[in-house]
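Colleagues,

For the teaching module next term, I've prepared a clean inverse folding example: a structure given as tokens, and then the sequence designed for it. I'd like students to try predicting residues themselves before seeing the answer, so please don't circulate the second half yet.
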């Protein structure tokens, strides 16, 4: 089984990325042949500054390794080190109906937020389909916001197979982890860089813990019972606390007597401890100059060998060359 997923290097890694995609991806690296990459081509649709892009790629690579990506198990690479993916993307574009892309939520949301779209943003899902299809992927661990892009990917694969021959491209499935399908941010909305409600994994202790204090709650006074439904604290706590710890916090909500400030502090402390091992690994990685680049180069060589074969197969099938 081949597992594949990617992240955009648009900023520092946040809890939504970690629990929605990275944690399941890290578990899956032990269950099949994993291909994980940094989607730098995709980020060009939003970042037009070479220095910033390179720094973001470097940081994300360090962070992914720190979180437990094992380069002995998973193939880890930069998307742009396999330029064949852009050729496949072009070919896929030619079977992709415009209305299918016009319908994509992430595109529509960006327009609704006042962004003037470049055509890269519009065809973003086609490049994502190429990422997935070029490695004959079976399974793609993602957060819920990518579900529609996976549907587009399957549609494109089916269209290609209909036009050029059954079995030309493997039709993949997504894997969405129910309890972390949509990780909420400090305001209770989906955690996202574009909403400014993120909590970054590798911040210093003080600002990290402070972010949890910012979580929005209702104004139930300390002695009163507090609602469990609609809590912006409990869903995050459930991601890191033991079932007993969660039960205790829920019980305290029902009984009253504990204020939101105390719950937030407990959550912040728990999260901080949860990432202790990752922070230690990160410090170790940062002390080894050249290590990350070596990992990415070795990953790119392996990924590229697979990608070249797929592109050759597709070129032949469609009548190029
Ligand atoms: P990106 O960089 O926006 O996000 C990376 C991963 O994190 C997940 N995620 C979340 N999950 C749950 N709750 C949240 N609040 C949350 N925020 C982010 C995303 O669902 C995603 O899985 N298009 C992709 C990158 C990509 C890709 C691919 C992914 C490019 N090619 C091929 C899979 C396969 C993206 O922008 O992810």
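(Answer key — instructors only)
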């Amino acid at each position: 089984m081949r597992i594949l997923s990617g992240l955009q290097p648009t900023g520092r890694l946040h809890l939504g990325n970690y629990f929605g995609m990275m944690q399941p991806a890290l578990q899956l690296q032990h269950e099949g042949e994993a291909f994980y990459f940094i989607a730098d081509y995709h980020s060009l649709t939003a970042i037009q500054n070479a220095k910033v892009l390179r720094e973001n790629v470097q940081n994300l690579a360090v962070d992914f390794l720190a979180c437990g990506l094992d380069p002995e198990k998973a193939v880890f690479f930069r998307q742009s080190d396999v330029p064949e993916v852009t050729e496949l993307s072009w070919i896929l574009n030619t079977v992709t109906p415009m209305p299918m892309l016009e319908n994509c939520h992430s595109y529509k949301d960006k327009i609704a937020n006042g962004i003037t779209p470049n055509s890269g943003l519009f065809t973003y899902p086609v490049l994502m389909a190429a990422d997935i299809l070029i490695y004959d992927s079976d399974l793609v661990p993602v957060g819920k916001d990518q579900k529609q892009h996976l549907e587009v990917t399957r549609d494109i694969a089916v269209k290609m197979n209909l036009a050029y021959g059954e079995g030309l491209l493997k039709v993949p499935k997504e894997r969405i982890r129910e309890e972390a399908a949509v990780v909420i941010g400090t305001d209770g909305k989906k955690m996202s860089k574009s909403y400014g409600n993120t909590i970054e994994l590798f911040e210093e202790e003080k600002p990290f813990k402070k972010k949890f204090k910012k979580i929005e709650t209702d104004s139930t006074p300390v002695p009163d019972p507090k609602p469990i439904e609609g809590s912006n604290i409990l869903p995050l706590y459930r991601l890191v606390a033991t079932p007993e710890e969660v039960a205790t916090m829920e019980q305290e909500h029902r009984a009253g007597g504990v204020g939101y400030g105390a719950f937030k502090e407990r959550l912040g402390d728990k999260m901080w401890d949860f990432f202790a091992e990752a922070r230690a690994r990160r410090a170790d990685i940062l002390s080894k100059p050249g290590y990350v680049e070596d990992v990415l180069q070795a990953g790119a060589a392996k990924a590229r060998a697979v990608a070249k074969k797929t592109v050759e197969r597709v070129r032949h099938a469609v009548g190029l060359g």
